[in-house]
Amino acid sequence: MKKGRVFWSILKRTNTDKIAAGFGVYFLVSAFFIMLVEPGIHRFGESVWYCFSVVTTIGFGDFTAVTVLGRTASIVLGIYGVIVLALIPGVVASYYMEVVKIRARESAEEFLYKLEHLEEMSREELRELSEQVKKVKLKK
């Protein structure tokens, strides 16, 4: 559950939640539109299933668009879906990498600060600093 909250938190901070919500609305509107114009798709659930197969590029073939309007809507939905489905993981990964860089920079700044103020540190603080240096050496 926590991972889902972190994911949505990242989307919200990067305003990608608006893109996801917009896509969700467009998906449902497209499903409704497809249901209206396609003679072989009679129920909204069938239309949602068709739109899902278009967006995921699975294309099961159990429902197909035969009208020009339905095919055009399918093309637009497919392109929009590919863009959104590629964009969101990229934003999340980029955000995560920025967080990692910031934490590393803060950690390095703190470490350098301690090195510059060795004479002010207690024996316990010096011992902790020594352990940190040993951990860094072991990682290399």
User: How many beta-strand segments?
Assistant: 0
* Overall domain count: 1
CATH domain fold name: Helix Hairpins
User: What proportion of the residues is helical, as a percent range?
Assistant: over 70%
Question: Main β-sheet: number of strands, strand sense, barrel status?
Answer: none
How many H/I helical runs? Answer: 5
Tell me the distance between the termini: 35 Å
Helix vs. strand class: mainly alpha
> Could you say what the CATH architecture is?
Orthogonal Bundle
What's the gyration radius in Å?
A: 26 Å
Order of helices and strands: HHHHH
CATH class: Mainly Alpha
What is the general shape?
Answer: rod-shaped
List the uncertain runs.
Answer: none
* Average pLDDT taken over every residue: 88
**Strand content of the residues, in percent?**
under 5%
Transmembrane segments: 20-37, 49-69, 75-97
Organism: [Clostridium] hylemonae DSM 15053
Domain Potassium channel: 25-96
Keywords: Membrane, Transmembrane, Transmembrane helix
